[in-house]
Amino acid sequence: MNQQAIEAVQLCTSMTEVRACVDALDDVIVTLLVQRTAYMTQAARIKQDKNQVRDEARIQTIVDRVRKQAVAQGGEPAVMESIYRGMMEIFIAYEHHEFARLREGAAA
Questions:
Q1: Of the N and C termini of the chain, which has fewer Cβ atoms inside 10 Å?
Q2: Rounded Cα gap, residues 40 and 96, in angstroms
Q3: Cα–Cα distance for residue pair 50/79, rounded to 1 Å
Q4: Quick one: residue 11, left, alpha or beta (phi over 0 = left, psi -120 to 50 = alpha)?
Q5: Residue stretches of the chain with pLDDT short of 50
Q6: How far is the C-alpha of 71 from the C-alpha of 77, rounded, in Å?
Q7: Is the pTM of this model over 0.90?
Q8: DSSP 3-state of 75
């Protein structure tokens, strides 16, 4: 049975406890975001045309998926969508940068 993430959150009685729990989550989140960034570099390497970097259908698929996951875990789907849309815009810009960087090296 899938335990909802919201139910796994520790009950805190002070801001010190809240901050310690958030810091612990951030330690995991940063590691995962670094890994996601590495996959965006791979995507930039694999894609043949810079117009492939922004894929609206893929963006919508991700939004739909994370909204569904948020609901299943007891979270707020609108919050998750906002986070992911912002994050994807940053990753798209990064991927454009990587796309250009990887081809500049090949053109030299």
A1: N
A2: 9
A3: 30
A4: beta
A5: 1
A6: 6
A7: no
A8: coil
